[in-house]
Amino acid sequence: MNTKKIALGLYQQAELYLERGELETSHHLCNQVIEIQSNFYPVYNTLGKVLQAMEKLDLAKQNYQQAITINSNLVEAHINLGNLFTQEQQWQAAIESYERAIQLNPNQAEIHHKLGEAFLQLEKWDEAVIAYQKATELNPKFPWSFHKLGEAFLELEKWDEAVIAYQKTIELNPKFPWSYYKLGEAFLTLKKWDEAVIAYNRFIELNPDFPWSYQKLGTALMQLEKWEEAVKVYRRATELKPDLYLPHKNLGDALMQLSKWSEAVKAYRRVIEIEPNIDVAYYNLGEALVKLERWSEAVAVYRQIVQINPNSYLAYSKLAAALVKLTEVEKNREIEIYPEAIACYETLIQLQPNQRENYHQLADILQKQGKLEAAVDSYIEAIKLKPDVPWSYNNIGEILMELKKWNQAIFTFLTALNLEKNMPWIYQTLGEAFAQISQSNLEDKINYYCSALQNDRAEIIHSKLVLHLPQNPDLYLYLGNSLSKKEKYKGAIIIYNMALQLKVNDQEITNQLQKTLEKKLQLKLEVERYRRAIEQNPKSSKYYYDLAITLTRQEELEQASLAFLKAIKL
After folding, report:
1. I need a labelling partner for 435 at 20 to 30 A (CA). Which of 44, 276, 284, 455 fits?
2. pTM, full prediction
3. Residue-range domains of the chain with CATH
């Protein structure tokens, strides 16, 4: 028998024993073949497979390469060498081997599939797509190539193409769960929430114990505002993976949507137990506690955020707001709490000095504390940043009233009303300010304000805020009418005269002024009538009481007080 036939027989036996898994026998037979015929290239390929199975990778590689050296057209040797490089995660070398195999046999789908895998590992997504598309052309019945093609499309953010690939995978193998999972991922990105729900539900039917599928399903349900269903799937995720923080966090979010604040608190506290340094959990917990009006607990939570992130603008903002609410509930603790709230707003101003609202909030607290001068300064800073907000002027005006700075208060209130005249509470206070300055001589005050209007005279608040009287006759007419209706006649008379300063001889303003003067005169006559009645009946408490009421309407407050006291004595 010649050596070629002997070598071939031994080679065939070696292949048979390799298939049976009898590696040592196969190895021995391969060596016998090489001893008989050293240039018999198929045996080196077989020996490479044996050695690779024995995990002797370097020796296996040498034998594959020897087979290729003898016969460079041996496709299987190139494929096996590529597989070995893949096993060693030498992806570029694997690509070179697979590409050589494809040159020799371009119509073998398996090689294109394996080439695609190597490209995926090197994150060469476009090349992977080309390889997998060729694999699916050559073998359109192999679902795994479509699945991997979908992965490459996902990486390229070609969501619609990924959907098509995964749907084809499912058509070929409807029992493989991960294609549904990946399909759901593509639908989520495309914001096709209903389709995502269907995909994840199908995955869960096939693989009910994977927690992230419930997490993803919950995301789609939240977008569909199906809060109750979202709660159920998030609860299932937390059961499967109790130490995974995200399902607990999302469970809390869904419960918040259902206004189940107490349950949300429990969920967020669990998140913090698992991951104590994730500030979003603290914010959400704080929000739930605020909804429950559990201000002390909310304050404690926001303090924790400040400790985690001492430069967080949002944390200080939330803490300050909670502290202010806490003072409203626990008024006996105002002295204790206000300094911390003030410190928060001062920090907020340092972090973002151009945020008007912080100056305004700080001023509100200072005003409540009775630190009126400091409050005015803070309101002025707010005005510098945004001079067209009437509330800031209104609040300064109220403080100036407390400080009995009547003219400054009037200038400030008029500025506020020029920005927004629909602030009816100001009319009463403004009328009181005019009454205070008009106690001695109304005519002098008319002249003062008309002159101030004509000469554009200013009032300077705290040496920082310069205020001019509005050049707005329509405002003064409207305001005069409002004051007149409230029987604030002195203020109305001053205001109508200011309006006439801007609209000389205006008939409507003149008529309204005349009516107001007549009403003021009627009050004066009424006062005189009660005084005469008292002269005749000096022990009548009723006349003193009626006189006091009329003097109050006349804005003669000191005289009204004396009349009330006399009525009480009688």
Report:
1. 455
2. 0.77
3. 209-292 (1.25.40.10), 294-387 (1.25.40.10), 400-504 (no CATH), 522-570 (1.25.40.10)
